[in-house]
Amino acid sequence: MSIIKKPGHKILLLIVFLSLCAPVLATGCTSFCANQKDDEYAQFGTPPSKGCNEYSPSQDPLREVPFLTRKQTQTEEGITVTAVALSDHESEEVFGLDLAGKGVQAVWLQVENGTDEPVTLIHVTMDPAYYSPNEASYSHYSFASPVNEEINDYFNDNSIRREIPAGGVIEGFFYTNWDPGVKYLNVSLYSRNQETNFLFYLGVPGIKLDFQRVDWDRLYREEEFTDYQNEDDLRRALESVPCCATRKDGTGKNDPLNFFVIGYTDDILSAFIRRGWDVTEPITAGSGWRAFKAYFSGVRYRTSPMSSIYVFRRAQDIGLQKARSTIHERNHLRLWLMPIRYKGMEVWIGSVSRDVGSYFTIRTPWLSAHAIDPDIDEARAYLEQDLLFSGGVRKFGYVKGIEPATPDNPHKNFMKQPWWTDGYRSVFLFQEDTTALTDLEFFPWEWTDDDRDVMIDYIKKRHKKRHKKHNKR
Amino acid sequence: MSLVNNPKLIQLFLVVFCIFAVSGCGANYSPKPPEEVPFLKRAQTQSRNGITVTAAVLSQEESEEIFGVDLAARSVQPVWLEIENRTNVPVAFMPIALDPNYFSPNEVSWMNHFKFNKDANRRMDEHFWKYGIEVEYIVPGETEKGFVYTNLDPGIKFVDVTLYSLDNVERFFFYFEVPGIQPDYENVDFENLYTEEETVDVGSEEELRAALEKLPCCTTDKNGEGRGNPLNIVLIGDPDDITSAVVRRKWDVTEADTDSFDLDLRKIFSTPVYRTFPMASLYFDGRRQDVSLQKSRHTEASAYRQRNQMRLWLTPLTYRGDSVWIGSVTRDIGSDLRVRKYWFAAQEIDPDIDETRDYVVEDLILSNNVYKIGYVNGGGKAAPGSPVKNLSGQPWWSDGYRAVFLFGEEPINLRQLDFFSWENIDIEQILEPQDVIENENNLSGN
Questions:
Q1: How far is B222 from chain A (nearest CA, A)?
Q2: Rounded to an integer, what distance in angstroms lies between the CA atom of residue A373 and that of residue B104?
Q3: Contact, A422 vs A462, CB < 8 A?
Q4: Chain B residues touching residue A26 (CB < 8 angstroms)
């Protein structure tokens, strides 16, 4: 970069810079008009545009755009919070602009302060990197547009403030980072005497989710369920579950089934969502196309479909994933509802693994597959930490049920990918109230927390099974 | 054929082939055991309740030496840990607290695999795995050591080592300066900014309030003239406590701004997320900001376009012995197209300066190191209807209050937060500001 150190080249550099930027500027000028193309609106059935130089957002969003049908309300200690997360389409109808395209998602909030002192709405806990109204509108700024001011005013006038006087109400939009499927929102209200937290899990329409295609009532007949009442029976039942997923017809040995979750579905899912797990789309033409595009551009596709693997002769009921910045790497897990209950709570079996990248293969019709981390226990350890930190786990333990394997002599799944494990499966029992890590309880199975020697023996045994790394050092 | 006989073409072919051989095939893939690289001289050790933790962060060169591949280019930063358990219970190491998106050894290895060299790839897998730390319980009397493969942080790396034993959670916090960039504050000679006589220590809150109100409203140009951005925050406390709070809230340091085109353009285009991009100079007391901090949107390829900026200057004041810093916070909301003196300064700020200040108030309080907070007058005032323009011609408005933070060492929870009983931010006043500065100092033509 020595060229730019010479002052004589500054002008040259400026010319190069401007010529590089000219196309960008040109698109910037026209992008606003392009936003309002008739054919784009046609597919949503919204009114045709009024031309380039007009900005026509919804004048009365609450009446004109029926997003309030999904509103959720919670009341605690005199404060009432109502929240709705807008879908991409709804925010386009309200704001007349494609917010999602800029990574912004509007959330409508109403806070009623029934206490007798002022309360502050903390924005940072809802989204640590939220967009200020001017920032959200500035991403739609275009050089030659005559309506920049109008857009700016609209975003500001409809935004939510922070301070709520005693007995007052505030409402408006809050501009967050875009989330697909389910929006987790921690609404925190602060006054000098108290801090009140409201946790919302807001559905975001716009994509199909894999668990919506499951016919939950037909999975099992009521008499098929066995309800276990004590921990010993539960342990035996879990240990007898087959080690691995199978083919559709129930044969073969695919990925390991390496954890169980027990609890009420709401408590389980909210713990996952709090820790940033995303829901998954089923394989459809639309999701396939998005996955295809993401594969080639390498961009992040947070709800990308997962291949089906089979337990109980059916594909996973729910898939959850945590994507990194590209589609090629993610943690993912699959869950199947079991015909078992524990003290009335549902029991799910799961398979968790870490995608480390994708590779070319002839074993799938689309010629590429995700490579999994063969050290399956690494993914299990990640999940353990993640769920224990969610605060939703009340009780935790291990059961056996998978044949241990080592890197020298690994198991192989249907994609011929190796995996190895110490053979243990983690069991998580969820509850609604949050549990601090220090209050966590343990199932007295492979170890007990009462007897440290037993625990230490267990850990040493597990180290030995896992691999010879400890002996090598 | 003339093409084949063309020596230049053959040369080109050979060069391409050589590059291919070196980069694609990994023929000379030669990682080193960590013991042979002296990175441990920067290690820090903490000991508490029978647990000893030693930590060190690798620089780009060191990680390339140890692992044989350029990990920083893939945004991976290995952190060395050595955890010794001298208690009588097993202790679990939880790297998810250090980095919620940490990489597994096989994952890092896979992303660095060579295209055509199975043998080198196998050795690479083994190398990353062998020196990766075990995510496991550490039984009494044992020591666990190895690397955690974290996402790259430039400038200052905050390392949170959380250890869980059945009824106890121990957390060790480390802060490392990561070699590779030169933060702007390293150019400042803090010892000689003020002489002994210039320094004023105030002992009471009322004196402090009076002194803070007297500080200038806004930044200036180099000659001390004009009105730039409002000086709207005051940080008081031990610099270490302030630093650890802002770093924990994910503020990044900023590279020195050389006021010229002398920028490494490669960084802008090659670094996945450029989080330490230089910031323009604003002036207080005749000098450029002592410390620049920024928080950019990590998801954006052009992170520097949307970022929060914090500029801090050391003042000659001290409050009960603690240093007092005055600062200006602004939010960059995108690039604008006006031609500026330095093109990287061409970023539009959010004119609603108080929104940015409120954000910083929330953000710093959540660091749990702020003990006391309050507001004083003295910052620049302007109503939304008639904004002031700063030295780059960008408009802003504000109610004129400065947020004052007093930092402490031990984390507290939100309920323990205390308040300076000074100004009350009145809701009505925010809606209809009473005092409006005439827009006479419009310096946009400057």
A1: 22
A2: 8
A3: yes
A4: none
Q: Are B234 and B352 in contact (CB under 8 A)?
A: no
Q: Using alpha carbons, list the distances in angstroms from residue B277 to A244, B180, B245, B267.
A: 49, 13, 21, 9
CA distance A425 to A238: 9
Please check the confidence at residue A1 and state whether its pLDDT lies above 60.
no
Tracing tokens 């994507």 back to the chain, one arrives at A323
Q: Let me know whether A359 and A423 are in one domain.
A: yes
Cβ distance of B130 and A472 shorter than 8 Å: yes
Instruction: Note the pLDDT tens digit of each residue in A454-467.
Output: 888 888 888 777 65
Q: Residues 6 or more apart from A243 whose CB is under 8 A from it?
A: A253, A256, A257, A401, A402, A403
* Residue at A265: amino acid letter: T
Domain boundaries, chain B: 29-177, 184-441
Question: Which residues in chain B are contacts of A4 at CB distance < 8 A?
Answer: 261-263, 265
Given a contact cutoff of 8 angstroms between Cβ atoms, the answer to whether B156 and B184 are in contact is no
Residue B112: phi, psi to the nearest 5? -110, 5
Distance of residue A351 Cα from the nearest chain B Cα, in angstroms: 18
Residue B176 φ/ψ region, left for φ over 0, alpha for ψ in the -120 to 50 degree band, beta for the rest: beta
Here the tokens at position A466 are 């896992």
Domain assignment present for A53: no
Q: Yes or no: is domain B29-177 CATH 3.30.70?
A: no
The answer to whether residues A171 and A291 belong to one domain is: no
Q: Domain end: A177, A203, A229, which one?
A: A203
Q: CB B95 to CB A25 under 8 A?
A: no
Asked if A197 and A270 sit in the same domain, the reply is: no
- Residue range B245-265: average pLDDT? 75
Question: Do residue A263 and residue A356 come from a single domain?
Answer: yes
Task: Record the tokens describing residue B71, joined without a space.
Answer: 């990990």
Is residue A50, in this structure, part of any structural domain at all? no
pLDDT(A47) > 60: no
Q: How far apart are CA A167 and CA A145, in angstroms?
A: 42
Tokens representing A126? 């809802």
| Chain B contacts in chain A segment 168-197 (CB below 8 A) | 177, 190, 192, 195
Residues of A in contact with B90 (CB under 8 A): 452, 455-456, 459
> A269 with A406, same domain?
yes
Task: Establish, for the pair of chains A and B, how many residue pairs have beta carbons separated by less than 8 Å.
Answer: 152
Q: Write down the residue that tokens 């990925």 correspond to.
A: A255
* Selected residue of B362, B421, B425 to mutate for chain A interface (largest A Cβ count, 10 A): B362
Q: CA-nearest residue of chain B to A21?
A: B337
Integer-rounded Cα Rg, in Å, for chain B is 26
**Size (chain A), residues:** 473
Chain A hits for B95, Cβ within 8 Å: 385
Tokens of A472: 């090598």
Evaluate whether ipTM surpasses 0.90: no
> What residues of chain B lie within 8 A of the CB of A389, using their CB?
94, 96-97
Mean pLDDT (whole number) for A340-353: 96
Mean pLDDT over each residue of chain A, to the nearest integer: 84
B255, B183 Cβ separation under 8 angstroms: yes
Q: Of A202-216, B17-31, B327-341, B394-408, which gets the smallest average pLDDT?
A: B17-31
Q: Which domain holds residue A76?
A: 61-203
Q: List pLDDT tens digits, range B354-385.
A: 999 999 999 999 999 999 999 999 998 899 88
**Residue A43 resides in a domain:** no
Q: DSSP 3-state assignment of B242?
A: helix
Using the beta-carbon criterion (under 8 Å), do A389 and B299 form an inter-chain contact? no
- Contact check, Cβ <8 Å, A163/B96: no
Are A254 and A246 in contact, with CB atoms under 8 Å apart? yes
The pTM for the full model equals: 0.83
- Do the domain assignments include residue A47? no
How crowded is residue A407: how many other Cβ atoms within 10 Å of its Cβ? 17
Q: CA nearest A385: which of A423, A421, A347, A428?
A: A428
